[in-house]
């Protein structure tokens, strides 16, 4: 870490953006494998926390620093079909909000960003969403990056980035949990089935079992 710090001309690292993530195909919570569980937590949680623990002492020495953590909407509300991914993001949120509460008075800031579905590019240049239903509305990666920068530059403690209906579900679970969890209980099984058919796994029609195939 000392070598990494040396690349910044003595000023050190002021902002660390944690954007590593491992997400496996949608599967039911009971079908998760031990390998998938370990691989997801190694990347999403353990690696991120380990890097933070290495870098934080240098920030504390200078009395300033900012961790920007790309979490997920799945870390704020249940994500049927993505139990392990959701668990890893809940863990990430818990760790970094706690870290901020411990170190804020020492000059360390933390911004946790929770995006919903994002239109990303795979290695071949095709968008990942093309493998899913064409009716799924996803925020572009460019727009997500722009809003993340705005959130961090304004010192927000947490930011949510998504289209509806994901954003509405996040608000319900956060502020009206009984209703929010009731809604997710209605959707859960239907979402896993819709994903298996490559249907729209973010449609409100899932409440009525209407996840249509692409």
UniProtKB/TrEMBL annotation:
| Pfam families xref list | adh_short (PF00106)
InterPro entries named in the record: NAD(P)-bd_dom_sf, Sc_DH/Rdtase_CS, SDR_fam
Q: Which domain of life is it from?
A: Eukaryota
Q: What is this protein called?
A: Uncharacterized protein
The organism of origin for this protein: Eucalyptus globulus (Tasmanian blue gum)
Q: What is the lineage of its organism?
A: Eukaryota, Viridiplantae, Streptophyta, Embryophyta, Tracheophyta
The cross-references to SUPFAM superfamilies, in alphabetical order and at most eight, read: NAD(P)-binding Rossmann-fold domains (SSF51735)
């Amino acid at each position: 870490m000392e070598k990494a710090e040396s690349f910044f001309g003595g000023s050190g690292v002021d902002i660390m953006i944690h954007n590593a993530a491992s997400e496996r195909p949608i599967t039911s919570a009971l079908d998760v494998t031990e390998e998938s569980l370990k691989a997801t937590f190694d990347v999403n949680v353990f690696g991120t926390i380990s890097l933070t623990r290495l870098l934080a002492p240098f920030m504390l020495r200078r009395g300033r620093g900012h961790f920007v953590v790309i979490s997920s909407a799945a870390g704020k509300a249940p994500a049927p079909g993505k139990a392990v991914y959701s668990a890893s993001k809940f863990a990430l949120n818990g760790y970094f909000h706690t870290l901020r509460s411990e170190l804020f008075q020492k000059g360390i800031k933390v911004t946790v960003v929770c995006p919903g579905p994002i239109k990303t590019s795979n290695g071949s240049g095709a968008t990942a969403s093309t493998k899913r239903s064409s009716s799924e509305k996803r925020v572009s990666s460019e727009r997500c990056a722009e809003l993340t920068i705005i959130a961090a530059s304004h010192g927000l403690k947490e930011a949510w980035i998504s289209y509806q209906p994901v954003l509405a579900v996040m608000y319900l679970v956060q502020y009206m949990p009984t209703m929010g969890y009731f809604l997710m209980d209605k959707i859960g099984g239907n979402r896993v089935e819709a994903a298996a058919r490559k249907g729209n796994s973010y449609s409100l029609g899932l409440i009525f079992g209407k996840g249509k195939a692409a």
